[in-house]
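Comment on this:
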Amino acid sequence: MKDVARFIAGFERFHEKYFSEDRALFEQLKHGQNPKALIVACADSRVDPALLTGAEPGDVFVVRNVANLVPPYEPGGSFASVPAALEFAVLSLGIEHIIVLGHGQCGGIRALMGGTDSQTEFIGKWVGIARRARERVLAELPSKPLALQERACEQAGILVSLENLMTYPWIAQRVEAGAIHLHGWYFDIAAGALMHYEPARNAFEPAAPGAAI
């Protein structure tokens, strides 16, 4: 109950800030939302995309799931939560940026790399979306320590999601037209640093050199 009470106290601070000090923002938001960016993030409690980016209410449309994965396009898929969110963000909200935000010490990727995903009812099938990332890492870094392999798979998993985004025809068309831009971000929890994927160098590089989040 202590945690719940803390959350309620947090809402009271939120209410005071936005409904008392900055009423203009919510006067605008009550008429609808108009975010320009969609962030696909992990459900990990340490990786809150709004907190990490300093976003205000209404700034970002957020989808969170285990290991920040985007499944490939599958017409008529059953209970397709992520595709439904993508469809709404792209076709209804007209977002201009899609950011896949991965992170260090990801439990979903750890389960994938360690093979423990096969012992679960739902997680195994879900993180299997990134199975080709695991295969790539094991082929390229076969003798490296598990921690290094997991970090490589966390970043490779981001690339899998970016590739899968391009299987959605209404995303691919907008990317090719320059109306939507795709971004791969990696939050290094241990270092407190944000990295972004640079396609030209096929590498993750500091988003803000010398700075921590």
Summary: Residues 1-32 form one domain. The chain has a mean pLDDT of 91. The longest strand covers residues 181-188.
